[in-house]
What we know:
The chain is an alpha+beta fold. The protein contains six helices and twelve strands. The protein is 31% helix and 40% strand. A six-stranded mixed sheet has the order 2-12-11-4-7-8. It has a four-stranded antiparallel sheet with strand order 1-3-10-9, with no helix packed on it. Strand 5 and strand 6 (83-96) form a beta hairpin. The relative contact order is 0.20.
Amino acid sequence: MKGFLLLLAAIFLLGARAPILVPEVSQHEVLVQQGFTGADLLLFGAILTPEGARAAQDYDIVVVLEGPPQSIVLREKRKVAGIWVNVENTEFRSAPAFYAVAASRPIRKIVDDKTAAIYELGLDRLQLSPIGVIEPAMQARFSSGLVDLMRRQALYQQNDAGVTISEQVLYQARIHLPSRVQTGTYTAETFAISQGKVVASGLTHVTVSKQGFERFVAVASQRRSLIYGLFAVVLSVGMGWLAGRLFALI
């Protein structure tokens, strides 16, 4: 009897094995050159059983493309006596330079608040950690302000209908990288979700790098900061002198 129960448990576990995600991206490297106006990335892949067959049930898909973390100082301004002044400020230790999420359905209908917070699914679930002690109400206000600011610059995006799934196998999502996107390594993570639970995930990477004159300037500013600073000062003085001469001739 015990052996029979073990056999039934093994059969159940075999049939209930999680699916496998095979993620891919249309470009693993995005080159930022002069005149760069942005890039459209296609994140796609397949949902398969461990045997490589089509999944036997429907899954929701959520795709997250996240840029390298960076420190951001956010200042709150108020109008005092007719003048806009900084009244409060805080610094976020590791806010993503870029964050975009696309889903096959509205995220709130796919997962509960706890799961969304654990996996940071959605702009309202980003874990933005300020430096130092800050009141919860103030932290929420600054976090909301940062998300709103980045969203207006197209650096934070959310599309609750951005993922399409075909024949329960293939999925795809398009995400636009704006022209002001930061360089670095981006992670593209895909989540397969069933009955409110993340049952599988897959990860791939995208590198955003500068080329040409932009790369020369960026490398020079980092590796030869003194020479770069002196050159910038000389160039500014030279441009000012040239502009003065031109206006004198008019």
